Every structure is written in C-alpha cells, then in structure tokens.
Amino acid sequence: MSKIKIFDTTLRDGEQSPGVNLNQQEKLEIANQLERLGVDRIEAGFPASSNGDFAAVKAIADTLQSTSVIALARTVKSDIDIAWEALKGAKKPAIHVFLATSPIHMEYKLKKTPEEVIRTSVDMVRYAKEKFPEVQWSAEDASRSDWNFLAKIIEQVIDAGATIINLPDTVGYTTPQEYGNMFKFIKENVPNIDKAILSCHCHDDLGMAVANSIAAVENGATQVEGTINGIGERAGNAALEEVAVALKIRSDFYPYETGINLKEIKRTSDLVAKLTGMHVQANKAVIGRNAFSHESGIHQDGVLKHVETYEIITPEMVGVKEANTLFLGKHSGRHAFKEKVNEFGLELTEDELQEAFTRFKKLTDHKKEVTDDDIYTILMEIKTDSNQIAKYVLDSFQVYYGTANTPTAVVRLITPDDKKLEGALTGNGSVEALYKTIDSLMEEELDLIDYQLNSVGGGKDALAEAYVQMKVNGEVVNGRGSHQDVLAASAHAFLNAVNRYKLHHRAVEKEETVAQ
After folding, report:
1. Is residue 179 packed enough to be buried (19+ CB in 10 Å), middle (13-18) or exposed (0-12)?
2. What is the C-alpha to C-alpha distance for residues 96 and 138, in angstroms, rounded to an integer?
3. Among candidates 474, 429, 428, which has minimal Cα distance to 449?
4. Cα separation, 362 vs 29, whole angstroms
5. Which of 138, 187, 228, 370 has the highest CB neighbour count under 10 A?
6. pLDDT at residue 327 above 60?
7. Which pTM value belongs to this model?
8. Nearest-5° Cα angle at 210, 208 to 216
C-alpha cells in the first residue's frame, strides 16, 4: 500500500470562506485536533498578511509535536523571511510559495512573461531553501496552464530546491480525466520529478474536488490537499474526510493508505463547524447527520437484516457513536466532569472548567439525558466566550407571542462599556421581534444574511444550536449560540457575531498601534 500524505489547509484556505474569522485560540484548538486526526501537514496561515496571522502561525508552530507546520508565502523575499520567523520554532517547519502559471493569470494578474515567472519562481525557491528543509512550490491555476510550460518550470524549481510540487485546480474547472492526465504528463516529462513529491489541491466549483483529487493520486500524486468539511473560498475545497474514507472503504480498488485516524473525523468535523460557524449539511457525505439514516422502508428492512445491505460506512468508523447515550447526570461531580473534558482532548483553564461545569449542572436541571454532543457544545462556547473580554451581553429578554397577538420582544442588553440598555419592538415572528430589538440597542450597522436552527442530538429536550451570518458595518461575520431554548440560542448567535466582529477589529487596531 502506497502512503498518501494529507495536507490540511483548513486554517488557511478554509478560513478564506466568507464570514469565517477565527482568532488565535480557535486556530490553535483546530490545529491540536488536526494533529490528533493524524494529518501529515498543516498549513497554519499566511504570516505576512497580518500580525494576527503571524502570531497564530507561530503559536501553532511552537505547540505541535508531530505534524509538519507550513506557512504560505508569495514569491517575495519579505514574505519568506516573515514565514521563517513564525516557523523557526516548529519541529518540522516548511514553506509553501506560489506563483500563477496559466496564460490568463500571467498576462492579466501578474503582468509577467513566462520567462519572468520561471525566473522569479526559481530565485525564490532557492532563497526559501536556504532557510527551510522543505519547500513546496505551487503553480497557481495549473489546471488551465500549458503542460509543456509546467514541465519546464517544474524541472527548474526542483533543481532550485523544491521538495514538493503542487498542481492546483485553483478555480475548480477541471475534470477527473483531465486532471489525472496532467499529473501523468508531468511524471513522464519532468526528468527530475523523482526528487519531489507531487501534490494535488482541488476546489469544488463543479462538485468534482474529491474525484479530481483521487484521479491525481491514481496518476502519481502522493499528497492530497484539502480542508475539513470541504470549507473554503467559493464552493470550497476537497473534503479531506471524504478522501480518507473513500481510500479506506475502496482499498480493494485503491492501493493507497493515509495516516488519518478515522475515529477522530466526527470530532474534528464538529470542532471546525462550531468554530467557523459553517454548519455541515445533513446529507453531507461521510459526516452529515443523515449519512447513517435510512428513511425508506425497503432500506430499513435491509439494514435490520444485514447492515451492509445499505450501509457501506459504519458510524463507529468515523467516530459517530451509534447510541449517543447518557454519560453524566445531575448527580455527577466536578472530578467526573473534568475526566470527560480530558477525553475530548481540550485544555481548559480552571476558570473555564468551572464555568463549563456550572453550565453543565444548569443543563442537567432541565435535560434528562446529557450527551457527549451536549458537553462538547458547552465546551466550545466556553472556549469562544473566554476570548471575548469587552462584549455585548444579553442581560435578559422576554418575547410575547400568541396566535392572536403581534410578536413583541423586550430586551435588556449590557454594552461593552458596561451600560445597560433596554428596548422593545414588534416583528412578524418571535425571532424577528427579538433580532429587531437587539439591533436597535447596538451602535453597529447590522444586516442579517442567513439564519439556521439545528438540534444537538435528538429528543424533545435537545439543545438548540443557532447559526447566523450577518454583515456588521459591511463586513460578513458568522455567529453561533446554543441553549435549551431556541430563542435564547438565537439571541446568543446574534450577539456572538457582533462580538466576534468587535474582537477581530480590536486585534487589528492593536496591530496598527504596535506597528506605529
């Protein structure tokens, strides 16, 4: 079985999804979980883009023990220098430099000739190699590039020191046959290709990112790049969990294996979904809520008689517990709760642990069965809230609703400067009334784009989890909130989005002050 390395770019390409704005602590939480998942390489960010990104990449590089940490850089000396400063404390530092090679990009974006693109790439790969033991060079928009030109530039950047060659389908344009043939061509027409690893990086604009990635593997690629849950710009990237499970389930056809711990897939997916605010669709392959559900009577009958009649992936394989049963109850103590937190692999301060335990005890007063998902949701909220110091806080609210009445919300809000504001407004529904009232008490200009409500687990006493996407002063931000009451969850999600916006801009202002 040939080993396929997994290159995760959730924290770089994935974070470029509209509305996703992870802070340093959230990035570190995801990076730690990705290491537990078993990915070979983590692209932690683009250090030259901002002081905040630099700090996050450095924190990840200084923390991870077994996974290679990679930083993105343009083919510019200053970017490479900044990347080295961020990564020099890593156990396995690496750099990823890129330059476009397609005619349309070279002419209209770069305004460079093919010869200038080759010269710049070779010079910067050679410069990066002076600092980094591993240098990845990417031919941006490779799938729309001339293959003979690709072969020419690849040969020269390998001679300059590149150890990984990435041929991305940057705009999600190619098909499996085309993409696979490109890798085959490079393997057959670059004399020194055996000195480098071939890597694929696919976007999902036409829904073929995973298929294209596997086609690349079939034709010589030994590294697959992608993101958890397939998040990323536009339609997203190849979903790494789908690639890993496909290679495992069809090992009879694909003679390849990865180092992914499949049992960590659900936890990793849940963490990324919660921290990015990008909910996983119910029918998502491998990890969606309906992936192991059977509605058809014929399917149900078949599964009851023999599970493999309609189920090719067992829930346990990807870390989904078949019975999400009670593990702690209202009489459970703090020690037992702490042991459960340790099982999740999360590190909490004493204050965070106490707050999580307090919320857990409150939940047990109302919810008969408290599940792993419930606890994990609480912990993620605690980790998020602990990063927000000056923020809007929902002091209290009341919604009056009935079939014969106009929905009316009364809200008392505590502002970041500790003022108490109160207001009341009506709406066409209870959530609209609640959101209009909260909006009226805030100084920011707000525009709700999307609102989703989901349950954590099942049952009539399930936790509600609300997600919102909204524009805050013109900037797209995601927010999330959970509570046993759907209106409270909705209110918390609304506030969370605004607080995340304010937290991000405080960090930017701090960067600018330091720079001055």
Report:
1. buried
2. 7
3. 474
4. 25
5. 228
6. no
7. 0.87
8. 100
Q: Residue 409 — φ and ψ, nearest 5°?
A: -120, 135
Which three-class secondary structure state does DSSP give residue 262? helix
Q: What is the pLDDT of residues 304-315, one digit of tens each?
A: 555 566 578 888
Q: Is the dihedral of CA 272, 278, 279, 285 positive or negative?
A: negative
Average pLDDT over residues 265-281: 90
Cα(338)–Cα(343) distance, integer angstroms: 9
User: Can you tell me the distance from the alpha carbon of 122 to that of 203, in angstroms, rounded to the nearest whole number?
Assistant: 26
- Residue listed under structure tokens 């293959």: 147
Residue 45 burial (CB < 10 Å; 0-12/13-18/19+)? buried
Instruction: Report which residue type is found at 173.
Output: Y
* Cα-based distances in Å from 188 to 121, 148, 167, 181: 22, 11, 15, 10
Q: Of 85, 63, 68, 183, nearest to 131 (Cα)?
A: 85
Gap between the Cα atoms of 386 and 350, Å rounded? 12
Q: Which amino acid is at 292?
A: F
Is it the case that residue 86 has pLDDT exceeding 60?
Answer: yes
Give the residue, 364 or 104, on which the prediction is more confident: 104
Nearest to 148 by CA among 180, 213, 103: 103
Q: How far apart are CA 422 and CA 472, in angstroms?
A: 21
Cβ 92 vs Cβ 44: under 8 Å: no
Helices (DSSP H) in 310-387: which residue ranges?
334-344, 350-364, 372-385
Residue given tokens 């802070």 in the structure block: 23
String of DSSP letters for 501-513 = HHHHHHHHHHHHH
The answer to whether 254 touches 427, Cβ cutoff 8 Å, is no
Residue 186: predicted pLDDT? 98
Give the pLDDT confidence score for residue 99 in this predicted structure. Answer: 98
Identify which of 462, 479, 473, 482 has the alpha carbon closest to the alpha carbon of residue 505: 473
* Whole-number pLDDT of residue 294: 47
CB distance 128 to 161 below 8 Å: yes
Looking at this protein, which amino acid is placed at residue 344? F
**Backbone phi, psi, residue 328, to 5°:** -140, 150
What pLDDT is attached to residue 19? 78
Candidates 234, 237, 189; CA nearest to 212 is 237
Cα angle 385-388-391, degrees, rounded to a multiple of 5: 105
Examine the pLDDT at 322 and tell me if it is beyond 80: no
- How confident is the model over 386-400, as pLDDT tens digits? 555 568 999 999 999
